[in-house]
Amino acid sequence: MASVFSMIINGDLPGRFVWRDDTAVVFLTINPVAPGHVLVVPREEVDHWEQIDDALYAHLSTVARTVGRAVKDAFDAPRVGLLIAGLEVPHLHIHVFPAWTLETFDLSLADKDPDPAALDDAAAKIRAALIAQGSAEFVAE
Is it true that domain 4-138 has CATH number 1.10.760.10? Predict the structure, then answer.
């Protein structure tokens, strides 16, 4: 059975995408720890991050860093957080989010009912920052 992330990637479930390439996608999480919290997800269903090949890991890291710079700019954050938790969905995903305090890294404090308009606004800000940084070819609409 396909993971929930594969269903989002395939368009079977909705997602607010900000990045798409042949190997990975990035979309907003529905439970953000801060506005602008995104997930970097490989198209390939891989459960455990330590089991991916080096090329995929390098690509995901590059995408996370690129999108992280856009998140930092879009939300004027002093830091960008990055976490690989791997407990919520059995499909590798890297959390990238603007961070102001250490509490931002606590996924148990995530918003369980975010405003859909705020999620749409966050996606638009990240897309605009990606375009401004020269990554327009990967920006998802």
Answer: no
